[in-house]
Amino acid sequence: MQQSNALTTLLASMGLLPSLAQSAEDVAADCVTGLNEIGTISVNDMVGSPVEVEKVIALKASEQGASYYRIIQLQEDLPTERWQAQVIIYA
Questions:
Q1: Burial 35-50 (b: 16+ CB within 10 A, else e)
Q2: For residue 44, how many C-alpha atoms fall within 13 Å in the half-sphere facing its CB?
Q3: Which neighbouring-strand residues pair with 76?
């Protein structure tokens, strides 16, 4: 819980929390037909919950001009409790 609060505090201090309301949206694999793939995003060694990881992914996708993203891999390294993610972003 303390790590979650630390991440929220960090995002708020950087002025990033208001941006989350306008961030890219998750899209299912069967819904990407017709979307323009514009790149990929990697998230490595992030501490937090899966929800926090997804918020960071959405923010990064938006920063790169994406309207949608699809998480193709989300994995937690249990000994270190750190998350790794691979994401495709779409316009």
A1: beeeeebebeeeebee
A2: 2
A3: 83
For 77, the token pair is 């390294």
The answer to whether the Cα torsion of 44, 20, 59, 25 is positive or negative is: positive
Cα-based distances in Å from 88 to 6, 22, 40, 50, 57? 27, 18, 4, 17, 10
Helices 2-13 & 50-63 angle (0-180, nearest 10): 20
User: Tokens in use for 19?
Assistant: 């941006």
Q: Which CATH superfamily is domain 2-90 in?
A: Flavin-binding protein dodecin (3.30.1660.10)
The one-digit pLDDT tens for each residue of the chain (91 residues) are: 445 556 655 665 555 555 445 689 999 999 999 999 999 999 999 999 999 999 999 999 999 999 999 999 999 998 888 999 999 999 9
| 33 CB-near residues (< 8 Å, 6+ apart) | none
